[in-house]
Amino acid sequence: MELVSPRKASPGDKVAVLSPSFAAPAVAPAVHEQALERLQEITGLVPVEYPTTRRLGATARDRADDLNAAFGDPDIRAVVATIGGDDQITVVPHLDASLVAHDPKPFLGYSDNTNLLSWLWTQGVAGFYGGSTQVQLGPGPHVDPVHEQSLRAALLTGERLEVTEPGESEDIGLDWNDPRALSEFGERGPTEPWAWAGPERSVTGRTWGGCIEVLQWLLTAGRFPTDPSVLDGGVLLLETSEELIPAREFGWILRSLGERGLLSAVDAVVVARPPTSDFTTRPSDDERRARRAEQRDTAVEIVNAYNGDAVVVAGPPFGHTRPQWILPYGGFVTVDGAERRLFADYA
Question: Rounded CA gap, 131 and 111, in Å?
Answer without folding.
Answer: 10
